[in-house]
TrEMBL record:
NCBIfam families: PRK07777.1. Keywords: Aminotransferase, Pyridoxal phosphate, Transferase. This is N-succinyldiaminopimelate aminotransferase. The lineage of its organism: Bacteria, Bacillati, Actinomycetota, Actinomycetes, Kineosporiales. Pfam families: Aminotran_1_2 (PF00155). Residues 26-383 form the Aminotransferase class I/classII large domain.
Length: 387
């Protein structure tokens, strides 16, 4: 590839899933559910294919999905969006984030990013010729904490974007009201746009509520909110995402999207539109079910000797293997299939080599709990051999 991308190899998810396949290990690495989403959703997609929704959909997305996204943002967050101008359907959240960064950053513009960061962020910032300014989320006994001093220090007059992610992959952190307010205040002070990746919006636990950045005072006019059907409806392979926000910003993203993929997911879009209108019980059931599996994994990892903080959201738990005598998470992840027949992902793969976050996260391993009880039981049983 071009020099801007040369430091990016194959993604850690592909590497670890291949390792799991090769070794027959239980794959708690790549985050994808092992059960498909609601039957009505699957039936609706089949019906859409059978009834001729197989040609290019409209460039912004099918009207039913634009309406459904706007209605979802109103129903859950009280946000008021015009579906005709303030919503855009994308090829997953990945394209929404990429098109957002490419649409809004000139070469040399700075993008403030939480680190560890989802792996597509640094790559797309590099592709835009922009400069990443990282703010470490540092691990502690009760989970990860945002370094507020580093947050302020990351902003400058060159800041164009804040690329936020809450609930946060890979740490499972749900940013608290204080952190969100601090980000919002700095975005206003430095006149930055916030692109916020909220794909895990419905995967929050213990009675917490997800707070979109766009709901904070003064933020709706400078925030692009990104989400995806992949996580909420357990259909990660469909790649139906969306972005919403102020019409001029959404229009800018649309300009990029139309030349990246033009349109996507014709027959899946009406199906996702119907699913977004599922009753509250679907959403609360999803979180409750995942919370139970979170607890199963966290307890199993602790019984196996790992130190684990309970994640507040997402479907990932971060385990510290130092009590078991392992200091290097990358090395442990390479050896784990052979040692225990399990695959995880090193948290340092989400960090810039040599950064403060990379150092703090060096020992840590991310395991996913979006798997069946049987798979989770099998994994934690296998991990007992490490003691
Ligand atoms: N953002 C985050 C934080 C993610 O964890 C993921 C998926 N694992 C994505 C984006 C990608 O979403 P999609 O598949 O909809 O592109
Ligand atoms: N988002 C999922 C994860 O973090 C997988 C994404 C991918 O494979 N690119 O594991």
């Amino acid at each position: 590839p071009v020099s801007r991308l040369r430091r990016f190899g194959p993604t850690v998810f592909a590497e670890m899933s291949a390792l799991a396949q090769r070794t027959g290990a239980v794959n708690l690495g790549q985050g994808f559910p092992d059960a498909d989403g609601p039957a009505t959703l699957l039936d609706d997609a089949v019906a859409a294919i059978r009834s001729g929704h197989n040609q290019y959909p409209p460039g912004v997305g099918v009207p039913a999905l634009l309406d459904a996204v706007a209605e979802h943002q109103r129903r859950f967050y009280g946000l008021d969006l015009d579906p005709g101008s303030q919503v855009l359907v994308t090829a997953g959240a990945t394209e929404a984030v990429a098109a957002g960064v490419l649409a809004l950053c000139e070469a040399g513009d700075e993008v403030v990013v939480l680190e560890p960061a989802y792996d597509s962020y640094p790559a797309v910032i590099a592709l835009a010729g922009a400069v990443q300014r990282s703010v470490p989320l540092l691990p502690g006994p009760d989970g990860f904490a945002l370094d507020r001093q580093a947050l302020r220090a990351a902003f400058s007059e060159r800041t164009r974007l804040v690329l936020l992610n809450t609930p946060h992959n890979p740490t499972g952190t749900v940013l608290g009201a204080d952190d969100l307010a601090a980000v919002a205040a700095l975005a206003v002070e430095f006149d930055a746009v916030v692109v916020t990746d909220e794909v895990y919006e419905h995967l929050v636990f213990d009675g917490r509520a997800h707070t979109p950045v766009a709901t904070l005072p003064g933020m709706a006019e400078r925030t692009l909110t990104v989400s995806s059907a992949g996580k909420t409806f357990s259909v990660t392979g469909w790649k139906v995402g969306w972005v919403s926000g102020p019409a001029p910003l959404v229009a800018a993203v649309r300009t990029v999207k139309q030349f990246l993929t033009y349109v996507n997911a014709g027959p899946f879009q009406p199906a996702v539109a119907s699913a977004l209108a599922l009753p509250d019980e679907f959403y609360t059931g999803l979180a409750a079910d995942l919370q139970r599996r979170r607890d199963l994994l966290v307890e199993g990892l602790r019984a196996a000797g790992f130190a684990v903080a309970v994640p507040a959201g997402t479907y990932f738990a971060v385990a510290d293997p130092r009590p078991l005598g392992f200091a290097d998470g990358t090395d442990l992840c390479r050896r784990l299939p052979e040692l225990a027949g399990v695959v995880g992902v090193p948290v340092s793969a989400f960090c810039d080599p040599g950064s403060a976050a990379a150092q703090a996260c060096a020992p840590l391993v991310r395991f996913t709990f979006c798997k069946s009880d049987a798979v989770l039981h099998s994994a934690v049983e296998r991990l007992q051999v490490l003691q």
